[in-house]
Amino acid sequence: MDDGESSTNNSSRPWEFYNTVFTNAKAGMEGVDKEKVQRIVYEMSKGSKYFQNEERKEALMKQKIEHMRDRCSKLSPSDLSNYQKVVDRRILELEATRDLSRIWLHVDMDAFYAAVETLSNPSLEGKPMAVGGLSMISTANYEARKFGVRAAMPGFIARKLCPDLIFVPVDFTKYTHYSDLTRKVFKNYDPHFIAGSLDEAYLDITEVCRERGLSGGEIAEELRSSVHSETGLTCSAGVAANRLLAKVCSDINKPNGQFVLQNDRSTVMTFISSLPIRKIGGIGKVTEHILKDALGIKTCEEMVLKGSLLYALFTQSSADFFLSVGLGLGKTATPEVRSRKSISSERTFAATEDERLLYSKLAEIAEMLSHDMKKEGLMARTLTLKLKTASFEIRSRAVSLQSCTCSSEDILKHATKLLKAELPVSIRLIERSRIDAVDKVTPNQECKNKEERPDFRTKKKLVLVLPEHLLQNEGFLERKRQTPSQRSRNQIKRKVANTSQYTHSSQGAIKTRDQVKQLQDELKRLSCFLENADEKQHKSERMQDFLEAFFLKAESKKGKAIKRVFRRLACIPSEAVSLHNVGSENLEEWMLRGTRSLENMTKAFKDKLASGAIAPHNQLAFGEMMEEGDMDLDDHEEMEDDHGEEKTIYSTKIAQLQFSSTA
Fold it and tell me: Would you name any one GO CC term (predicted)?
């Protein structure tokens, strides 16, 4: 078929290229006519705010794919060869972590909400039914899934797919009750099980199998039988050597079935080789399309075969994750119990501008959140309101309260103020959450203000934040090039940790002046190296080596890192965001520009010191540093934090330095 004919078909059947969460298959949808579902979803959605939002996201995704293809096309055989060496080394390191001694079980309730409703109303048995309404469906039973109806689908589209669909309103009290019953069963097999949600959990059944002399499959069969006896509900299970594989296995024989993957490396590799990447938790729609459309990676096995591309184009942490998936590796240790950092509650409803309805929903959610906090014994100080508009724009607003609370009246009072500031607007989702300052309290214990707590100390911290485009710029901060010229430089024995934020005590800036001369010499040395670098290196590669050397140098001694961070900022040009457009001939110009900026900054800083505009604690931290001057900054301004303390924020195109008061 030629391009003209293909284009004609594309325009006459646009639904074939309309992919949304509604068209993704779930368990029980294997025999569904996918084209019919896509066509109906497309026709029912076209022209809506949701459709427009999906088109916007689709356009952004295509841009990402094109950008990835462009970067991929610029990789030379030599580059890929070097990255393949990285892959080979990481495979050896990851294989050394493979643990086949544990037995993990993932249990997933079958169409949980729908099954609970059917249990409460047996007349629904065998009929297509969905929990939710015309605006949104929470889940659908297996009879409805045969028509293409699924969770997260608007009810009016579901009704078009299945005219006889029965809607049942959501009842979370009922679902929580049955969830608690299932968890009582889970505790008999693993007291420290990990609850993924109301209807799923991960259990380490290694000790149970060993003590009772039973296999993982036998324990799974017994557990499923116990859940059915206790609740009348069915569930599916997967048994494997780690949590990642166990979750994949639990979906294979749904509903009311199980699948056991033997703890044998050869068996695991055979199983994972043909597994579609979308089956893996953590790989969503966007990542799937980028891997498939940009790199041609469709199965987990191909993540290993094309590992050099992954390490060349993604961050190291992402590439490590993809490679571990391709090797069938996952978490096997039970995570430590951590104190809870946040608690939230949200509800989705039909878009509305009715303020009375919005305030009613707000009161409802405030009551639910208060109930959950009291149940968990939690109180908090920071309240966040999240809103989703009719055009699917997400807005988030937060406020810090004077004292900790779990009172629904307090929550509603402050949430109402946040909502009023956003009106009028058409809203379809409200979420209330309290974050950043959640404390565990005993019954009747009063939560004190931060200022009143005897163990509370205010600590000044200096935060350096680097923007995403620098961190992901073709290995920047993640990998060093193994070129002859680079090996002739200092042999760097480790790579910089992949992070976008460094935090150090502000006291570390006091002795900066003693380091300036040393770092100026370092700059000159690196400049000489750059000018005499291997002639075969492209100028952009030489520039990247140069910048990378500075970051590696700054990380070489963690105790003194912040001093070197200041110095290097004056040396990195704003043009560094486009590494392909720079070369060694610009170094002298950059150094001159940096010197002028430092002189101007020093003068401005001294003027503020003289006028008393900068608080003493900031003067102590920066006074000596600015004596010499050290940052190429575009602007600066004063702000006040929640306690009325003045703080100075310095910003630039490539870095942000700020003081913040933290616990």
Answer: nucleus
Single-letter residue type at 336 = E
CB atoms within 10 A of CB 13: 14
Q: Domain 104-112+172-260: what homologous superfamily? A: Reverse transcriptase/Diguanylate cyclase domain (3.30.70.270)
Q: What digits encode the pLDDT tens for the residues 462-499?
A: 222 323 333 333 333 333 333 444 433 333 333 333 33
CA-CA distance, 400 to 388, in Å (whole number)? 22
Distance separating alpha carbons of residues 463 and 126, to the nearest angstrom: 59
Q: Band of the pLDDT at 319, cuts 50, 70, 90?
A: very high
Candidate ranges 147-156, 320-329, 422-431; pick with highest mean pLDDT: 320-329
Q: pTM (2 decimals)? A: 0.58
> Structure tokens of 613?
């505009």
Active site residues: 200
For residue 384, how far is the Cα from the chain centroid?
19
Distance of CA 78 to the CA centre of its chain: 33
Contact 431, 368 (CB under 8 A): no
**Do the strands 166-168 and 129-132 form a parallel or antiparallel pair, or are they unpaired?**
parallel
Nearest of 157, 131, 138, 128 to residue 37 by alpha carbon: 157
**Which residue type is seen at 448?**
K
Alpha carbon distance 6, 202 (integer Å)? 47
Angle of helix 513-531 relative to helix 616-628, nearest 10 degrees, comes to: 40
Residue 474 backbone zone (phi > 0: left; psi -120 to 50: alpha; other: beta): left
Measured between alpha carbons, how far is 569 from 650 in angstroms, rounded to an integer? 12
The answer to whether the beta carbons of residues 108 and 200 sit under 8 Å apart is: yes
Looking at residue 400, its pLDDT comes to 82
Question: SS3 string of 377-390?
Answer: CEEEEEEEEEEEEC
Which strand (E) or helix (H) includes residue 208? helix 206-212
Q: Are strands 235-240 and 104-109 parallel, antiparallel or unpaired?
A: antiparallel
Report d(CA 572, CA 593) in Å as an integer: 11
- Going by C-alpha positions, the residue among 359, 362, 348 that lies closest to residue 392 is 348
Q: What is the mean pLDDT of residues 328-352?
A: 72
Q: What is the DSSP letter of 335?
A: P
CA dist., res. 140 & res. 158, Å (int)? 10
E strand or H helix at 209: helix 206-212
Structure tokens at 538: 């492209």
The residue written with tokens 């940790």 in the block is 497
Annotated domain spans of the chain: 104-112+172-260, 342-452, 459-662
| CA separation for the pair 168, 170 (Å, rounded) | 7
Architecture of domain 342-452: 2-Layer Sandwich (3.30)
More confident residue, 154 or 624: 154
C-alpha distances in angstroms, 467 versus 443, 615, 652, 655, 661?
Answer: 44, 28, 11, 7, 22
DSSP-based helix, strand, coil % in the chain, nearest 5? 50, 15, 30
pLDDT tens by residue, 504-537: 333 333 344 444 445 555 555 555 555 554 443 4
* 640: enclosing H helix or E strand: strand 635-640
pLDDT of residue 58: 84
pLDDT at 460 over 90: no
Q: What is the pLDDT of residue 429?
A: 55
| Of 479, 499, 513, 510, the residue nearest 628 (C-alpha) | 513
Token couple for 171: 């009842």
pLDDT of residue 528: 56
